[in-house]
Write a structure and sequence with these properties.
The protein has 7 helices and 25 strands. With 388 residues, it is an alpha+beta fold. It folds into 3 domains: 57-168 and 179-193, no CATH class; 206-267; 275-314 and 325-387, no CATH class. A 6-stranded antiparallel beta barrel has the order 3-4-5-10-7-6. A hairpin with a 5-residue loop joins strand 6 (142-149) and strand 7 (155-162).
Length: 388
């Protein structure tokens, strides 16, 4: 009997019914995945906060770039280049008093760099080079030894090396072409750290986490994630931008291990409804939580187009008199935008519906900026507008 049971097959009607049920279940799951709201993407704590004291420091210095092929500073417009060259040569034992120095192959530059946190003595960092005078290009130049100082006027690094320039400039008397900015350059690993900044992170008993985008909800979620991971209230919310965290007693590894353990925790950052507008470039960025109340919008432009088509009037061939004259012909066209219709934006529409509704009006970015500002002025836009 067991053998006959293994060979038993379902009737065709039952098999078709099960197949239809499986297809319906698959379709239902696909529809639900499309209409149900998707959970927001979570981010690591290390990607949304900065730890107190773990920061880079800006360095700056003044130096000379030599070896330029006649594209350096001129004596008339950059006298400080000649003065810097004389001072450098005198320090090297070369007397240049009373001599006329040509600085066409030299450029005075500002050298900037960022000193990374916990950078030890001997570490290499990148530097950026920018011309100060009227040099045309830094291509092919060599930066001489340049001390880099911090805000406390102490030297933390020394830079030197060949300058790498991405742009170029060339041409003659009739034409000139320039690509990029040839007066800016970089030196990869061009500076050596001479002094490190002492910061005793391991011995700290507490540290503050500074949110890069301050928000009450995000700060509360970070606090809850840390306390849930540790099983005790070691984190406390101070304000929307700061969370204070203390090291539990007898925690192995101290503060460094604690930061390593909590920076991988996942949190979902919250953000206020904001519309960012850059009027200069016509860029509009809207967050997903932007909502709008019911409002009707009509947009129309008045366009006046004037076309000048000069025509030449001259006497007939073999005529005894008359002169040739240019007679202006002007064509005037007026478009009042009467084809624009009134569009209705419903209450509490989503970001996609808002964009589609504005695009349905057939307007450009500049007009869309004006419409968004008008909607905000009417009180229908439930978001803040930030103008860059």
């Amino acid at each position: 009997m067991s053998g006959s049971l293994l060979k038993y097959s379902l009737p065709a009607r039952v098999t078709a019914c099960l197949r239809s049920f499986g297809q319906a279940l698959l379709c239902a799951s696909l529809v639900l995945s499309l209409i149900l709201p998707r959970p927001a993407m979570a981010s690591r704590i290390k990607d949304v906060v900065d730890f107190e004291g773990v920061r880079s420091n800006m360095l700056i210095g003044y130096g000379l770039v030599v070896g330029l092929n006649g594209t350096g500073d001129s004596l008339r417009n950059a006298p400080f280049t000649r003065q810097s060259l004389e001072s450098m040569l005198e320090r090297l034992g070369v007397n240049t008093r009373g001599a006329t120095l040509n600085t066409n192959n030299i450029a005075a530059v500002m050298v900037t760099a960022n000193l990374p946190p916990f950078a030890a003595q001997g570490t290499n960092v990148d530097v950026a080079i920018s011309a100060m005078g009227d040099a045309k290009s830094l291509r092919g130049g060599m930066l001489l030894v340049t001390p880099l100082m911090g805000a406390d006027s102490e030297v933390y690094a020394v830079a030197q090396g060949p300058v790498s320039v991405g742009g170029f400039s060339g041409g003659g008397q009739g034409a000139k072409i320039t690509k990029g900015v040839p007066t800016n350059g970089k030196i990869a690993n061009g500076a050596i750290v001479e002094r490190s900044i002492d910061f005793a992170l391991a011995s700290m008993a507490a540290i503050k986490l500074s949110l890069r985008n301050p928000d009450f909800t995000t700060a509360q979620r970070i606090t809850g994630a840390i306390n849930g991971r540790m099983g005790k209230p070691i984190a406390s919310l101070i304000d929307p931008s700061t969370v204070n965290m203390i090291v539990p007693e007898n925690y192995p590894g101290g503060m460094v291990s604690l930061i390593t353990d909590i920076e991988q925790l996942q949190v979902t950052p919250d953000q206020p409804a904001t519309v960012v507008i850059d009027e200069a470039s016509g860029i509009i960025v809207m967050g997903k939580d932007v909502r709008i109340n019911t409002v009707a919008i009509a947009q129309g432009n008045l366009t006046i187009r004037v076309t000048e088509t000069p025509q030449v009037s001259q006497p007939a061939p073999f005529s005894q008199g008359g002169t040739t004259k240019v007679v202006p012909r002007t064509t005037l066209e007026v478009d009042q935008g009467e084809d624009k219709k009134l569009a209705l934006l419903k209450d509490s529409i989503s970001l996609d519906e808002l964009v589609n509704g504005l695009n349905a009006l057939g307007i450009g970015p500049s007009d869309m900026i004006s419409i968004l500002q008008a909607i905000k002025a009417s009180g229908a836009l439930q978001a803040e507008i930030e103008v860059m």
